[in-house]
Design a protein that fits this description.
Blueprint lengths: L5 E5 L1 H13 L4 E6 L6 H9 L12 E7 L6 H12 L3 E5 L7 E4 L3 E5 L8 E5 L2 H17 L1 E2 H4 L10 H11 L4 H8 L3 H15 L4 H10 L24
Parallel strand pairs: 2-3, 3-4
Antiparallel strand pairs: 1-7, 2-5, 4-8, 5-6, 6-7
GO molecular function, one term: DNA binding
Protein name: HTH luxR-type domain-containing protein
InterPro entries: Sig_transdc_resp-reg_C-effctor (IPR016032), Tscrpt_reg_LuxR_C (IPR000792), WH-like_DNA-bd_sf (IPR036388)
């Protein structure tokens, strides 16, 4: 069907050409649902190829992304999810399969991904207010019931952090090498690695991937001065550690 308000396109390039401006001009809310990280990756690549602006959180734009547990299939996927969260997006994981993979922008436009196929995937761009509202309600209900990414990765959440702990955790999530992070914090490499290990144990993180995700939420976690629970830092470092 194609009457200007409901348009079906084939392939990511055609979607980028027909609806790229909608993505680029999101102002209030960008709500995205996907079974895994592959669903919209081709769309993003098509936008980059066409030099179209990408959506960035901030400036009043709430970016919410919910994925099924298929997105947690391997360490590389966890790294990518951590990067998405670190960019400012709110990322959640749903235990239940998504009813529909879709994007809703500013409650004005809904983009529905068609079933996976060997050929180009179809996408339906909808501008009918009643339909957009229905798609958003369904997707937002899934978002509300889903778990925040750190919890989905097995963490009990981010406890209150001392300032020293925040700095170590931020360095861990910054992508710096251990050597560069230690220099930045003014401590020895051995001390930095010991503090990272202590932080991971306190946070319940079983890998640096999980700790990196927690680093993206550290800025909003309560500080030790305003909370009773304080994340313990490492024992005092000895000279020349």
């Amino acid at each position: 069907m194609e009457d200007g308000r409901i348009v079906t396109v084939r392939g990511e390039r055609e979607l980028a050409a027909r609806a790229g401006g909608v993505f680029a001009h999101a102002r209030e809310e960008f709500l995205c649902g996907a079974e895994d990280l592959m669903t919209w990756s081709g769309v993003n690549a098509a936008f980059r190829e066409g030099n179209r602006p990408t959506v960035r959180p901030g400036g009043g734009l709430a970016m919410r992304k919910v994925y099924s547990r298929r997105a947690l299939g391997d360490p590389e996927s966890e790294r990518r999810l951590a990067a998405i969260a670190a960019s400012g997006a709110q990322v959640r994981i749903s235990d239940a399969p998504l009813a529909r993979e879709a994007v809703v922008i500013d409650r004005r436009v809904a983009i529905l991904a068609g079933p996976e196929s060997r050929g180009p995937r179809t996408y339906t761009v909808v501008r009918v207010p009643e339909v957009v509202d229905g798609v958003r309600a369904l997707l937002y209900a899934t978002w509300e019931a889903a778990a925040d990414l750190p919890l989905a990765l097995g963490s009990a959440g981010t406890p209150a952090l001392t300032e020293d702990a925040r700095q170590v955790l931020a360095a861990l999530g910054s992508g710096l090498t251990d050597e560069a992070a230690a220099r930045h914090l003014g401590m020895s490499l051995r001390t930095y690695r010991r503090r990272v290990a202590d932080l991971m144990a306190s946070l319940g993180a079983t890998s640096r991937f999980q700790a990196g995700v927690l680093a993206s939420t550290a800025a909003s976690a309560p500080s030790a001065s305003s909370a009773h629970t304080v994340l313990p830092t490492s024992r005092p470092a000895t000279p020349h550690a």
